[in-house]
Amino acid sequence: MDSPVALFEHQDVRKLLVAHKRRRYNSPMAKAPSPYGTATIHGTTFGREFYSGKMIPARVLDGGDFSLWPQALADTTRFKLILMQSRNAILAIGGRNSAVITPAAVFLPHAADIRLSVPSADPRDKIILFHPRYVFDSLPFDFDFTDEPDPLQSIDGYLLFRFTEKRAVAERSLLLEPGVGRFLDESAGRMKRELETQPDWAWPCRARSFLLEMLITCTRLQETNTGLFSTEGAMLAEPGLEELFGYLVSRMREKLTVESIAAAFGTNRTSLQERMRRTTGLSVTQYLIRLRVQTASVLLRNTSLPVAEIMERTGFVDESHFSRSFKKYAERSPSEYRKAFIIPEYVQ
Fold first, then answer.
1. For a FRET experiment, which of 32, 70, 260, 272 has its CA 20 to 30 Å from that of 15?
2. C-alpha angle 302/337/218, rounded to 5°?
């Protein structure tokens, strides 16, 4: 079966999007009330001035809220993404233990029997609680991509791969390069600010987009040892290239050139290009553009943020270049692509 990460590259995009749109309109879950579980202060944010009374099934707690972490970990209505910066920990699920070496991202299911033993709180640590339907509005808790469900239902479900209950305890933590750790910490901080300050009409959607960025980043790094878009049958990444993939993912929104990337890794343009092509079959620029386009596609089909904001968030500075690059890989313009999807009611 094709990698879920490369879903829109290897299928008839027009058929997929039309069928997906029909599925979303006809889905009983799309028409029914949104049962996100019991609304607790730990895993739910309520709208105030904008979307007054709306229940958004997500919340971010940091190290300053450490006294609330035990209740949050025991919440059976939310997945948990934990970002740990400096203090190693022991994770126990169902009596099975695993060491968490920091900096790390930890992916926890909605099970109640979870223990995270940390010697003390780091103010930078964060726990993001969210319902799976906050990521994709038709996903149940028992979703698991390894069960090969209908890809129309799981087009973005691969982002939650490590949160499902079938994962072993050792699979639930991901050691982070320092740059990636900083990027995830910044995104979590931005998500927390949006949920707490609710500055404008777009706050539910923008908060969700920061969560999507974090999930996309973690998925890119854990998908394979070669990162994204490797050619079929390609060898595993050469030593040091994993750090390069992390660098590109975490700095995607910045203005990057092959020369500046090569300088950051103490090499030259030619050597960098050769190593990247041996591993992925792509040039550094091709890899970066595809990474940006796929990230933009997730934000387009799952948020109602303006196209201009998504363009800027994914590192495109020119509207015509963004539209041209996106159309090359998705077979339609960003605006046309978005029309094929229904944005969940709570982020409109």
1. 32
2. 40
Strand spans (E) along the chain: 45-46, 55-56, 58-62, 79-84, 89-93, 96-100, 104-108, 114-117, 126-130, 173-175
* pLDDT-derived band at 85, boundaries 50, 70, 90: confident
pLDDT at residue 196, rounded to an integer: 94
Could you list the beta-strand ranges (E) of 1-135.
45-46, 55-56, 58-62, 79-84, 89-93, 96-100, 104-108, 114-117, 126-130
Distance CA 279, CA 230 (A): 7
96-100 β-sheet, strand order:
96-100, 89-93, 114-117
Strand pairing report for 58-62 and 104-108: unpaired
Predicted confidence (pLDDT) per residue in 320-340, tens digit: 999 999 998 888 899 988 887
CA–CA distance, 134 with 343 (Å, rounded to integer):
11
Q: How far apart are CA 42 and CA 181, in angstroms?
A: 24
Give the C-alpha separation, 35 to 133, whole Å.
Answer: 9
Q: How far apart are the first and last CA of the chain?
A: 34
CA angle 217, 264, 237 (to 5 degrees): 55
Helix 241-250 and helix 284-302: axis angle, to 10°? 40
Residues 42 and 325: their CA atoms lie apart, in Å, by: 41
